[in-house]
Amino acid sequence: MKHLFLPLLMTAALSCVLPSASAASTDAADAGVERVLHPRWRGANSHIKSLPPELIEYLAANKANAIRILMELDIHDDVYAKELRTTKRKPKVPTPENPLAPYERHLARLDALIPLCRQHGIQIILTAGGLYGKSGKHDVFYETGRDETDTHLLDFWRAISKRYKNEPVIVAYGIRNEPNYRDPIIAKKIWWDWLLPESIKTIRENDKTVWLMVEPPPAGSLPWGFAQIPVIDDPRVIYGLHHYMPHAFTHQGVRAVQKRGPDTRGKYTYPGKAPRFDGSDTLVHWDKDTIEKRVLHEVILFQKRNPNARILVSEFGVIRWAPGGAQWLADSIDLFERHGWDWTFHSLAEWSGWDPTYEADEPLKRRPNFSEGIQETARLQAIKAGWLLNASEKSNVKN
Considering the domain 32-249+287-392 in this protein, what is its CATH number? Predict the structure, then answer.
């Protein structure tokens, strides 16, 4: 059953009195600057806390044209968190006067990067990541009702959409990264029927032209969420998904590094047999055909039902020591290209486990400077080959 969100301008359209020319001019000015998307996005992900200017320069030099930036609390920055502990200060909290107070340092970092993105034509998908009020429980599975966390999401987008309504390089807002709900009934009640439409309404009150990227429950914005995703009644919506399948392959050894599980590094090779998730006894032979038919099937069906829908693989990646990781990346990108989907790779300049600029056996310590010591791994070459496809597509976009 489709849940259609009514157009937010309907009230104005039904008005019996036409606005004056000056009023119409004011309304246009208040609508937000026009955003014209690149024909296709091929780019990368980064959390704002770890995003250096050097990464923007590197993306531009290698023909990437988009970056999905996850906004998060200032206290997620380890240096700032240490500073607070040392000085025995408490982190800032949102107030009615300043709902963005917990993000001031990261917003300043974003503002400093915007001119660089404009210069290189790298469009920004600004996404709500680690926001105020999200406990570990809420961050994984939302099992409660409308609490202060949900209210803050609306306050966050109200303030952000005012702040950046006239910034053309911020072309899209990712309303929430991985809106996870264990129970589909709760997902419908909280996300589809309330929080998502209210977030869209809140943004549209300030900005009519920015694009909105929506990721589906149930968990991790995985592709099978497209079986239940409604068609959003807004002309500027992008439908997002995350691709890490088979999870047992792409995440092998991650739990051991986190000291939360057995060490499975080197256990699974691609192409080859692996369970979909760790803990399953069912082994499946994974290759490009399997990924298309068993992982991306629901997204493909959604696209057939909605041929004009724009689809973004907003995260995909593989841990750097997974045997066959380069082939998995190449096959995944080939599938995205086959179906005409945008994609932003996860990730560079963050935790080195995901970073293809490190060799498989390098220590986990992160390089002090992203641009120094980059290793031309097979994984990196697969990503760069994908970015290079942007060079053959001309865009008239001027930021």
Answer: 3.20.20.80
